[in-house]
């Protein structure tokens, strides 16, 4: 499309918008209902066929709009319309999102474009039911589902609920080759994010913290790979069977609890 034609079609588009708006304002209480098979745009226009199809919420009925009322851009309803929840198909005309959500462009699996309500806050929150909600909107929706019991579910604090450490990936038993490198790893999840330490019990039953003073042992810990997860590695740079054979224990701890997972290191048998 060349520049001139684009300009022409843009002004036609503007004209159509102005026309639709005028129609809407002329009707006492504007249109409502479905946009039909037309792809939904975020700024889709108010229907020009009057407000007959719009079911206006009754203001004083609690359960009419579980997520609350939002101002009605099409001026169909005296008290506004029901706000939509997360992932609902939306537009800024007659399908607005509830408070705390915004109508954003998303791509569907088929490559098509859709507008859906998305929570403005993306961080998890801990509810008064000790459950972690992926964001504030999810908590609000859960509270709305409780209906008259909604006041029983509130935010307790921002961030996930405190949870005991959980071993996501435990160290595995290994058979090392003399003089070669051996690595154990351990992944722990929890909130607050746990810290990881390592203990070693040798073949005589003596237990010590790692790395101790062993210059051949290094420990590395880093955050991730997922949220609220930490990963740690014990690296034995030159495996000496008399010193390093034994039981390696990963300890994950936070303010809620301590968890452990163990693995054995032995000499690889020559076949
Ligand atoms: C939530 O957890 C706290 C601390 O563990 C506990 O005191 C409280 O009773 C729990 N509340 C619910 C609703 O389970
Ligand atoms: C509301 O709470 C009461 C008592 O706590 C319970 O009996 C009732 O089933 C709850 N209603 C809903 C919809 O959860
Ligand atoms: C390794 O150590 C842990 C913790 O001390 C213990 O629970 C486990 O039984 C030990 N494993 C073996 C095979 O000795």
* Helix and strand sequence: HEEEEEEHEEEEEEEEHEE
Task: Supply Rg.
Answer: 30 Å
Figure out the total of helices. 3
Number of strands: 16
Termini separation (Å)?
Answer: 74 Å
Order of strands across the main sheet: 9-16-15-11-12
Instruction: Report the uncertain regions.
Output: 1-39
**Structural class of the secondary structure composition?**
alpha+beta
Bound molecules: 2-acetamido-2-deoxy-beta-D-glucopyranose
SSE blueprint and pairings:
Layout: H1 3-26, E1 69-70, E2 81-82, E3 101-107, E4 113-119, E5 125-127, E6 132-133, H2 136-145, E7 155-158, E8 163-169, E9 174-176, E10 182-191, E11 195-202, E12 207-209, E13 217-223, E14 229-236, H3 241-244, E15 246-253, E16 258-267
Parallel strand pairs: 9-16
Antiparallel strand pairs: 1-2, 3-4, 5-6, 5-7, 8-10, 10-14, 11-12, 11-15, 13-14, 15-16
Bound molecules: 2-acetamido-2-deoxy-beta-D-glucopyranose (3 copies).
């Amino acid at each position: 499309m060349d520049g001139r034609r684009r300009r022409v079609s843009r002004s036609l588009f503007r004209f159509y918008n102005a026309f639709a708006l005028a129609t809407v304002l002329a009707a006492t209480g504007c249109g409502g209902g479905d946009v039909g098979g037309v792809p939904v745009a975020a700024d889709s226009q108010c229907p020009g066929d009057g407000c007959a199809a719009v079911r206006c919420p009754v203001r004083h009925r609690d359960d009419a709009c579980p997520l609350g009322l939002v101002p009605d851009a099409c001026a169909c309803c005296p008290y506004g319309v029901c706000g939509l929840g997360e992932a609902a198909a939306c537009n800024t005309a007659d399908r607005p999102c509830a408070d705390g959500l915004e109508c954003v462009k998303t791509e569907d699996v088929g490559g098509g474009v859709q507008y859906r309500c998305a929570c403005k806050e993306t961080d998890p929150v801990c509810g008064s039911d000790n459950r972690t909600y992926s964001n504030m909107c999810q908590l609000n929706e859960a509270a709305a589902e409780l209906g008259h019991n909604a006041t029983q579910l509130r935010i307790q604090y921002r961030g996930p609920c405190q949870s005991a450490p959980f071993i996501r990936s435990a160290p595995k038993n290994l058979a090392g080759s003399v003089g070669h490198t051996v690595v154990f790893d351990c992944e722990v999840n929890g909130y607050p994010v746990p810290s990881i330490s390592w203990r070693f019990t040798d073949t005589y039953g003596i237990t010590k913290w790692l790395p101790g003073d062993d210059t051949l042992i290094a420990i590395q810990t880093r955050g991730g790979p997922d949220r609220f997860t930490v990963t740690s590695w014990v690296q034995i740079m030159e495996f000496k069977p008399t010193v390093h054979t034994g039981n390696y224990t990963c300890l994950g701890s936070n303010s809620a609890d301590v968890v452990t997972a163990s693995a054995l290191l032995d000499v690889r048998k020559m076949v």
